[in-house]
Amino acid sequence: MKIDGTQYRALWYDGNVVKFIDQRKLPYSFEIFTARTVDDVAFAIKEMVVRGAPAIGAAAAYGMALGEKETQKSAELLRSTRPTAYDLFYAVEYMVQAINHKENAFAAASTYVEDIIIRCKKIGENGEKLINDNMKILTHCNAGALATVDYGTALAPLRVAHGKNKKIFVFADETRPRLQGLLTAWELFQEGIPHALIADNAAGYFMRKKEIDLVIVGADRIAKNGDFANKIGTYEKAVLAKENGIPFYVAAPVSTFDPKLKDGSQIVIEERGRKELSEINGKTIMPDWVSVKNPAFDVTPQKYVTGYIAESGIRKKWL
Ligand code: MRU
């Protein structure tokens, strides 16, 4: 992704350390977080310095390389950081196998990361075919380059369409709990793609007014039957899309697919802390006696999905 004219990835290996664009600080400040140990990488994943399923997987791959000397301990630590995105577990397993086969751990991690980038690029090329000139597209949360190292999943087709001079307009949401729509708006701003950030509960309003032609979202974990977990609020966007006759697509690489799961009811949903709701920018916005519940993801049943945009092509069913 280009940031102020310079090419960046969400994270990269830089001579025995791993560097991350610190996503907690965006878009107000562009800071680099340096991880020197597997513990630093675990911190970065848990505290969401890095977030988004494929980017978490890429971080974990480098984390395993940093913690290579204690492979099992590093694997356990990384697996304990966040429970929902399957890419994390996929990447840790990939690295355990590579280390057991005496491969160079940093080379294996770099191979993993380059492979994810290629997969996302293909998702972009495949998904672009769904986008016509003058389309207005809704995406939820941030499934861009920040969330995947480069290109994105849901944002990749939009990037490719824009590159082909198709005129598009993007509605970006997820304003609560974490305002990750703002990360999407920031990426679109960097690319010069016209867009607007909307409150989460405004999506239905725009859909009914026929101002949204297509929805594309990412995924954190996909079950065998095509049910998938994604950022909280995705399910209601899917139901609204169906009600309003709007095609709803899920863009994800194979590393997000959990072949052990029959359906979405088996996906573990992460509960995050109170502060994501009770504070905004470090400022408390509710009294202490207010109790909160803060699931980070929800599960959307396959019946709401028009199709899946994968690196291998677009398909109606995941399997
Ligand atoms: O909690 P996050 O920010 O890690 O959740 C991110 C999402 O839900 C993304 O939509 C998903 O990981 C797909 S990213 C390409």
Overall domain count: 2
Largest sheet: 7 strands, mixed
CATH class of the largest domain: Alpha Beta
Can you count the beta strands?
17
- Overall pLDDT score: 97
The strand line-up of the biggest sheet is: 8-7-6-9-12-16-17
Describe the structure.
This protein has 319 residues and is α/β, with parallel strands linked by helices. The protein has two domains: 2-120, translation initiation factor eif-2b, domain 1 (Four Helix Bundle (Hemerythrin (Met), subunit A)), CATH 1.20.120.420; 127-315, Rossmann fold. Helix content is 36%, strand content 18%. It contains eleven helices and 17 strands. The strands form five sheets. A seven-stranded mixed β-sheet has the order 8-7-6-9-12-16-17, sandwiched between helices. The mean pLDDT is 97. The structure holds 5-S-methyl-1-O-phosphono-5-thio-D-ribulose (MRU).
Annotation keywords:
binds 5-S-methyl-1-O-phosphono-5-thio-D-ribulose, Rossmann fold, alpha/beta, three-stranded antiparallel sheet, Four Helix Bundle (Hemerythrin (Met), subunit A), 319 residues, 17 strands, seven-stranded mixed sheet
